[in-house]
Amino acid sequence: MVASKKTSSLIRVFIGITLLSIIFYSSRYFELPQCQEVQAKVQELGVFGPIIFIVLYALATLLFIPGTILTLMAGLAFGWLYGSMLVILAANLGAGLAFLTSRFLLKELVEEKLGHKDWFLKLKSSLNESGLNFVIFIRLVPIFPFNGLNYACGLLPLSFKHYLIGSFIGMIPGTLAYVYLGETGCKVIDAMIQKKFSFSDFPEDVRTSLVTAIIMLISLSVLPIVLKKIRSKK
Questions:
Q1: For the chain, how big is the Rg over CA atoms in Å?
Q2: Is residue 108 classed exposed, middle or buried when 0-12, 13-18 and 19+ CB atoms within 10 A define those classes?
Q3: Model confidence over 180-206: pLDDT tens digits?
Q4: Do the beta carbons of residue 172 and residue 216 sit within 8 Å?
Q5: Among 138, 121, 120, 116, which residue's Cα sits nearest to residue 129?
Q6: pLDDT at 151
Q7: SS (H, E, C) the chain
């Protein structure tokens, strides 16, 4: 279990670094739109922009579509703070709908699909504390697949209130890190378009954002280890 947590954490860091690398080479060899142009297009949509994003994100969660790209896009299109708020709202909406679907509409189908999976059996056997603390922990520590977890929790003896509150709290660190990565990628793209291809050439605010994004990703990878040590002392 410990090994899987460390592996999952390293995968998240690897994904973040890979995405930054893709941004670097894409902006160097392909003509990309400036982020301000993208943000202007989004602002032209007015209130419909955030609504469309929330609906798409919630649907992606229900349909087992990974939300990482949408999370990054939130940083690019809406900025870090507002984008994080939208992602947290949308992800929790989707997670809540998946929970209710699993519990009341498609319980037998979900049990058939997930009941035999090793990660679901581990999830079920680890429910040995209050529902709220349990949900916060499994959201903070990326042991189980996010979309599958939403449906799996509907099969467990958890209250919907504890599930929603725990999910809301547990999603915050990862959301903040990845939306910030998206906003940072936006700044990097703009710097690349201006033919600034090395770290030393970047404006100071871009360098600061890039270093901060890397620190946030590393902190996110260390979080599961810290949480496990805290839990083991209780």
A1: 19
A2: exposed
A3: 999 998 888 777 777 665 667 788 888
A4: no
A5: 138
A6: 95
A7: CHHHHHHHHHHHHHHHHHHHHHHHHHHHHCCCCCHHHHHHHHHHCCCHHHHHHHHHHHHHHHCCCCCHHHHHHHHHHHCHHHHHHHHHHHHHHHHHHHHHHHHHHCHHHHHHHHCCCHHHHHHHHCCCCCHHHHHHHHHHCCCCCHHHHHHHHCCCCCCHHHHHHHHHHHHHHHHHHHHHHHHHHHHHHHHHHCCCCCHHHCCHHHHHHHHHHHHHHHHHHHHHHHHHHHHHHC
Tokens of 119: 């990660």
Q: What is the pLDDT of residues 17-47, one digit of tens each?
A: 666 566 556 555 555 567 778 888 888 999 9
State the residue for tokens 């990862």: 174
**What letter represents residue 14's amino acid?**
F
Instruction: For the chain, report the end-to-end CA distance as a whole number of angstroms.
Output: 18
Tokens found for residue 212: 């901060």
Pair 113, 165: CB distance under 8 Å: no
C-alpha count within 13 angstroms, C-beta hemisphere, residue 148: 16
